[in-house]
Amino acid sequence: MTTRLLIFTENYARGGGNRYMVDLANSVAADFGEVEFASNAGGIYAEDLARLSRTARTRNAFFVTRAGISRRTANLPRWLQPVLRTALTVIEPLLMLLNVILLVALVKQVRPSLILVCNGGYPAAQACLAMVLAGHLCKVDTTLSIASMPAPRRSHMRLYERMLDRLVWKSCNLVVVNARAIVEALVSMRELPVSKVAIVRNGIEDLPAQQAAGAPQDAGELVIGCVARMDVMKGALLLIEAFIELAPEHPHLRLVLAGEGDASARIAQRVKEAGLEHRVSLLGHFSGDVDKLLKTFDVFAFPSLWEGFPYSVVEAMRAGCAIIATDVGGIPEAIENGRDGMLVTAGSKDALLAGIRTMISDEQFRNRVAANARKRFMTEFSLPEMHRRARAILMAAQ
Question: Strands of 322-326's sheet, edge to edge?
């Protein structure tokens, strides 16, 4: 009988969650006769499939999402929108039940040996939780991965969410996360049994030796760069405001932002208002060579307000960048303040400014933390090590 790995997700924005999903899949793909991805439309991107270590089938799964309902009712009169949101909250348990029924049918059709459910945060995509319950009902070993920080239970839905959490934890064989901070938050806010969880941190391929050196030191000019979604929650607006304040003090300072997000339009507007178009490069969605781009940065800035364990920081470590990042999620598990980079308080423009000033004024410090970040990447965050640990954990959980 052919063994089959089913990987399920509900679509979310491009980013580290997709990458983590593919890396987990690649760690065990060779152990199965077939690999299949299932999601709603747009859940699996072309670049995700391109990174797979083997050919996999893809399947559009049918289930109901609040986001989908909201999109289809976007043209309703404005006064009806709050009514619709309230109604969706009231019927949320019914939508969960409906999705469980729909996904039980999917599981019976696919007949997987193992289900890997890949979520962003928690509870996040409700269909992912429904798939965990469906896998349990079909008596299929099911692992849930969580790649970002969880949210606390909503006060008006506390009893329902507590019951749902308990069902999810009981239904899955294993919960895989990529940071100790996520474990601690899930245990404290969502009562996750510690015995059910394992940590598999992000890993990425190493660079050829000739590409692994740190950023080039150009005489005079200093470049601050960031590669991430340009979202409000990624701290993108804080970074642009900090640069606008720094620009008059440091006429040779430049900023490069690679990524697209919900703050992109506002960033472009602020750059224009400040008259800094010649000193700020807005690259938008970046499909080029990230490693080559990172080599042009003197300082890699990552001012995110909410994180799990970001690939962007690991990529910057691999490239030997001098990193300044916020002390959220799993970032302190990768960057020791003052040794591998600098950690600053999330959401504080003053803290970000002070950190950047230190970085750009002390070349010796920049070089030291950059070299340490590169060394730490080599010992702790390589892709082979991630695959080895993930395979051992996922196969043992069956």
Answer: 280-284, 253-258, 222-227, 299-302, 322-326, 342-344
Cα–Cα distances (Å) from 250 to 91, 161, 299, in that order, read 55, 51, 14
Per-residue pLDDT tens for 173-189? 999 999 999 999 999 99
pLDDT value of residue 393: 95
Exposure string of 87-106, with b = 16+ CB inside 10 Å and e = fewer, is eeeeebeebbeebbebbbeb
Residues 6 or more apart whose Cβ sits within 8 Å of residue 9: 21, 37, 39, 43, 44, 117, 118, 119, 125, 128
β-strand pairing of 174-177 with 141-146: parallel
Local structure of residue 211 (DSSP, 8 states): G
For residue 43, is it left (φ>0), alpha (ψ between -120 and 50) or beta?
alpha
pLDDT tens for 319-371 read 999 999 999 999 999 999 999 999 999 999 999 999 999 999 999 999 999 99
Q: How many CB atoms lie within 10 A of CB 108?
A: 12
For residue 73 the two structure tokens come to 């009712």
Contact 173, 284 (CB under 8 A): no
7 pLDDT above the threshold of 80: yes
Range 293-312 average pLDDT: 93
- Burial of 349-380, coded b for 16+ CB within 10 Å and e otherwise, reads bebbbbbbebbbeeeeebeebbebbbebbeee
Say what the pTM is: 0.85
Contacts of 292 (CB under 8 A, 6+ apart): none
> What DSSP assignment string belongs to 292-352?
HHHTT-SEEEE--SS-SS-HHHHHHHHTT-EEEEES-TTHHHH--BTTTBEEE-TT-HHHH
Question: What is the overall mean pLDDT for the chain?
Answer: 91
Domains belonging to the chain, first-starting first, are: 4-203+383-396 (3.40.50.2000), 209-380 (3.40.50.2000)
Contact at 8 Å (CB) between 200 and 386?
yes
Cα separation, 395 vs 307, in Å, equals: 27
Confidence of residue 133 (pLDDT cuts 50, 70, 90): very high
- The arithmetic mean of pLDDT across residues 216-236, rounded, is 85
